[in-house]
Each structure stands twice: as structure tokens, then as C-alpha cells.
Amino acid sequence: MKTVHNFNAGPCVLPQQAINSSIEELKDFAGTGMSVIEVSHRSKEWQGVMDETEALWKDLLQIPDGYKVLFMGGGASTQFMMVPFNLLEKKAAYLETGVWAKKASKEADFFGEVVKVASSADKNYTYIPQGYEIPKDADYFHITTNNTIYGTEIHTDMASPVTLVADMSSDIMSRPVDVSKYGLIYGGAQKNVGPAGVTFVIVREDILGKVSRKIPTMIDYRTHIKESSMFNTPPVFSILVMNKTLKWIKETGGLQAIYKQNIAKAALLYSEIDRNAMFVGTAEKASRSVMNICFVMADGYQEKESAFMEFAKERAMVGIKGHRSVGGFRASVYNACPKESVQALVDCMREFETLNT
Smallest Cα–Cα separation from 331: which of 248, 265, 257? Predict the structure, then answer.
């Protein structure tokens, strides 16, 4: 099997242990003689996976009583609509820190007044705004905790005077989170917790049922709570891989251990970006993401961008091309990205510097 250093932003690198174990279940699920993609989702064997996966979420994140964990389809983009449909009665507040945050607020416009409390669009989303005021009469305040395209991240669990809603698609399970500060957390799984195809939702039950509008059955969170995420057939294989990935996180030492590793990997690469005269980071230092590290060629070296991309490709670097809207480079160093891969990228950057300066 070809060895590569996978820095894709999503779908992305997953633990090899989780992949191997899932392959076995794809052949014979829980000794049933059937593949996991053949077995009934109403079987006791599959119910066991659902129960165990929910328990892993609650254990790893120390989710308090009063919250439910849901596994749904549609990706985080569907949640952009579901959140206001279920929670927005008159007014919602949004923090605009990137493309996905902007798309989320656009969907909320269909349901009521949307207040943009702050935006970093003036500097192409290269920083997290500070010093804004959250309106106390808002039904909820929505944030996007990590911005994959621009490499910025909200590093702490903020206090909010209203229900706090967070899209944590790309940094969930990368650090401990105080879930009690949030009313609802959601995200696509295809970064740290599994493959594309399943969306996680962590919701405090007491914030539901407050809007006056009728909510269609399929997009009412209470439907999925009542049916334990099996109102319709769930994305079984994606949930299975999520289950294996969460087990790997737990075996690695849980979120404290994972966070320590992630900080070390990010520090290694950022240190080289800051040292190397050929490269420069794009995000303001206080807002730098631990998950998605974005950089460009420094002044005087822009013409070397294509050459470095080819140089890195020859050394088995995969997925470091920056998003098409910003260019440059992006190394996504999610949980399962080994430190050895980050070191290989650093070595690649140093070698390129030696050959070109």
C-alpha cells in the first residue's frame, strides 16, 4: 500500500485502526454472517452500535444530563436550516468568521431577523472578532468554532447571555469542551469523528418546542430524539466508522491526550512557517487554528508556489493545496494525522528553502 502524508481538509485522515476494524465489519458484522451494510438497522446487533456510539460521545465530552446526541444525514449544511427552523422565533445573532458561518446566517434569514454581531470579512476572515455585544433579546447566538478555509479557530467555550449554538464540524473531539455552555452543537463527521455521511447533533432538550411555527416531521429535532436517531434508516456504515474512531480516541487517552498531541503538531508546523523566509502564515497569530494551518509564499517568492506544490507532491504530501477561494497552502492536522507527517512537511519546507535561497 502506498504511503502518503494526508493533509486533506475533509474527508480526511482517519485512524488506521478504525479503518481496518470497519473493513472487517463490512465483511461480517458482529458475527451475523452479513455485512454491516446488509443487516437490518432494527436488529439487536445494530442497536448495540447505536447505543455504544451515543455512550462514547457522552463519555468523551462529559455531556451533562438533559442533552441528547443525535446521528442524522444531510451534513452541517442541512443544520444551517434546521437550527433556525427549530429555535428562531423572532431574532437570532450570528458571528461571521468565514464562508460556512455566512452560509449559516443566510439560511436563518428565511425564519426571522438575523443580527450579524461582528464579521472578519474586512480582512478576508483571517482573525476572530473580539469585543462585540450579543443581543440579550436574541433567541440564540450562532458561532462557527473552526474555519477550515481560513485557518482560524475560537479556542475557548465562551459565555453567552442567550442560547449558544455552535457548528463544530472541524474541531469537535480535538479538545475538551464544556458542553454545558452550549444549547446545541452540530457538525459533519468527516474531520475528527468519522467519514462523510453522518451528522452529529448535541442538543439540550429544554430549548426545543418554543417556536410558534409548525415544524415538518423530518426536520424537528424532537422527532429524532423520540426515535433515538432511527426515525428513518440511519447512515449505518458512517456511524460504524464513527464508533471505531471514538473508541480509538478513548484508547489514545481521551480528549486531554488528543489535545496535547494536537497542540504539539500545530506548534511544530507554525514554528517552521514563522522561521522559514519563504513562507508566511495567513491567520493572525491569536486566531490561528490548531486543526487547519494556512500559509502562502512570502513576498519575493510567490512565483515559487507551483514549484513548491510539485516538490511537496513528489515527497508524498497530499491535500496541502489551499482552498480555491484563498490559494496558497493548507495543512489539516486533525486527530489522526501523525506527528511524523507534520515533521515530514516541515522537512520538505526546509529542503525547499535550502535549494531555493
Answer: 265
All 3 cell numbers of residue 11?
Answer: 474527508
pLDDT digits (tens, 9 = 90+) for 69-83: 999 999 999 999 999
Distance, in Å, from the CA atom of 100 to the CA atom of 218, rounded to the nearest integer, reads 23
Predicted confidence (pLDDT) at residue 1 exceeds the cutoff of 90: no
Does the pTM exceed 0.85? yes
CATH number for domain 253-356, candidates 3.90.1150.10, 2.120.10.30, 1.10.10.10, 3.40.50.300? 3.90.1150.10
Which segments of the chain belong to CATH 3.90.1150.10? 253-356
Which residues are catalytically annotated?
100, 167, 191
**Hey, what CATH class is 16-252 in?**
alpha beta
* Number of neighbouring beta carbons within 10 Å of residue 40: 13
Please tell me the distance from the alpha carbon of residue 275 to that of residue 168, in angstroms, as a whole number.
Answer: 31
For residue 6, give the H/E element and its range.
Answer: strand 5-6
What lies within 8 Å, CB to CB, of 167 at 6+ separation is: 76, 79, 100, 101, 104, 142, 143, 144, 145, 186, 187
| Average pLDDT score, the chain | 97
Pairing relationship of beta strands 199-204 and 184-188 according to DSSP bridges: antiparallel
DSSP state letter for 288: B
